[in-house]
Amino acid sequence: MRDFRRGFPRDGGNRSGRARVLISMQTYAATTENITVSVRPVYLDGQSNSIERKFVFAYFVRIENQGIERIQLLRRHWFITNGVGNVQEVEGEGVIGQQPVIPPGGAHEYSSFSILETFEGSMEGTYLMERPGGDQFSVTIPRFVLRAAAN
Length: 151
Hints:
The protein is mainly β. The chain has one domain (4-147): ApaG domain (Immunoglobulin-like). The protein has strands spanning 22-24, 28-32, 35-44, 55-65, 71-82, 87-93, 101-102, 107-116, 120-130, 136-147.
């Protein structure tokens, strides 16, 4: 697996003048019907502000099609839980404005971010996929931990 940090902007949009620090966490993975979803969260220290209760996390996703048919990602459904147990549910078409088609043996990668009001939380969910014949199925996005200053 490639180093997900490579494609991240050098300054991360940091306008505070503070040094930008990426604190990488472990990679989480789940496989459903020959589709493996790997997620690597990263704490963005330079964009976070603990006094304002703003903890910013990027997450880098890789979706690998280990099956024999192409698939298309149609929808996402996320559950974002903060450190006190409040859950935000997010649903929508595709990922970052795309509904990628992933061929057999291929992969799709993207990154996004989440802002929590607590220094710790988690994310998990599902992708709705479709096969060429129109058969739809859900793929698990593994639960991953978001923790400020984690390593």
